TrEMBL record:
Belongs to the TtcA family. CTU1/NCS6/ATPBD3 subfamily. It comes from the Eukaryota. It comes from Pan troglodytes (Chimpanzee). It is found in: Cytoplasm. This is Cytoplasmic tRNA 2-thiolation protein 1.
Length: 348
């Protein structure tokens, strides 16, 4: 049976049905609708004002590739300029290939690219070194906890280096729904309170961040990349199978099979959450070491690095909260997981 005509242009044959609405569209009309929806998200949320210098967190994966492509198309209309900022976490057998994809994108789209590396920013620590260290303490499942905190800091640093006024990341609706589920499952009221909305306004001197693809489903991001023939890196990080996020993803898939709107329902529920004053996180101050935004004496990144340098990564995660307020002491020389001693924990 031939495909029905496109419900938008009525000229071409439909190439897909939109997963949520069921609307049958041709590839060109789907891509135009997708871009219009991202534009609406940016304008309605007043995310990127005219004149903004926008650092796009570029990983080489589908989400950031689609985000950069769409924003490049919308940039003249929004009056913004773009810079790609990629983070090299130091993950052997994974990140090099992903960074190669980012470099090809930057060259093809004629966008400036800056790469910042954990190893340079964080006193010699790479994610592979962190993984060896946390495995030794029985915490290998925590890699993504460390990586998420350090990547946030690295992206901020990269964005500042290029003179950006705003940061955008490629998180899509599925990513956001998984995060909401994880925060519920952990009973993390503070993160739930911060997780709603389209990003953070830039408290405490941090650059404003937003997620223009927050209402786009993962399926539609993949479809957009397909119809625009985008070149992206699609392999999974070697540490991803250990992550707690994988359980939230499986649960979400089952929820979505029973209720197709489950993903967006979760995203919107996080936006609408209103916490009682007692459940709200404390007003953030400045990290005593690096000056970044912190709700304790040390910011999360400095606390994690502190625990790693002391050979006690548990201090900074899970139950070892006391370590967050402790001052750093020298780590154990000769630890194979320890980075070169000549490099100091950074200050920004
Ligand atoms: Fe980092 Fe985890 Fe993502 Fe790998 S899967 S890049 S370790 S956050």
């Amino acid at each position: 049976m031939p495909a029905p005509p496109c419900a938008s242009c009525h000229a071409a044959r439909a190439a897909l049905r939109r997963p949520l609405s069921g609307q049958a569209l041709c590839g060109a009309c789907f891509c135009a609708a997708f871009e219009a929806e991202v534009l609406h998200t940016v304008l309605a949320g007043r995310l990127l004002p005219p004149g903004a210098v926008v650092a796009v967190g570029a990983s080489g994966g589908k989400d950031s590739t689609v985000l950069a492509h769409v924003l490049r198309a919308l940039a003249p209309r929004l009056g913004i300029s773009l810079q790609l900022v990629a983070v090299d976490e130091g993950i052997g057998g994974y990140r090099d290939a992903a960074l190669a994809a980012v470099r090809r994108q930057a060259a093809r789209w004629e966008l400036p690219l800056t790469v910042v590396a954990y190893e340079d920013l964080f006193g010699g620590w790479t994610m592979d070194a962190v993984a060896r260290s946390t495995a030794g303490s029985g915490r290998s499942r925590s890699c993504c906890t460390f990586c998420g905190v350090l990547r946030r800091r690295a992206l901020e640093e990269g964005a500042r280096r290029v003179g950006a006024t705003h940061i955008v990341t490629g998180h899509n609706a599925d990513d956001m729904a998984e995060t909401v589920l994880m925060n519920f499952l952990r009973g993390d009221a503070g993160r739930l309170a911060r997780g709603g909305g389209l990003g953070s306004p830039g408290e405490g001197g941090a650059l404003p961040r937003c997620r223009p693809l927050q209402f786009a489903s993962q399926k539609e991001v993949v479809l957009y990349a397909h119809f625009r023939r985008l070149d992206y890196f699609s392999e999974e990080c070697v540490y991803a199978p250990e992550a707690f996020r994988g359980h939230a993803r499986d649960l979400l898939k089952r929820l979505e099979a029973a209720r197709p709107s489950a993903v967006l329902d979760l995203v919107h529920s996080a936006e609408r959450l209103a916490l009682a004053p007692a459940a709200r996180p404390p007003r953030p101050g400045a990290c005593s070491r690096c000056g970044a935004l912190a709700s304790r004496t040390l910011c999360q990144a400095c606390a994690l690095l502190d625990g790693l340098n002391r050979g006690r990564p548990r201090l900074a995660i899970g139950k070892g909260r006391r370590g967050l307020d402790e001052e750093a002491t020298p780590g154990t020389p000769g630890d194979p997981a320890r980075p070169p001693a000549s490099k100091a924990v950074p200050t920004f």
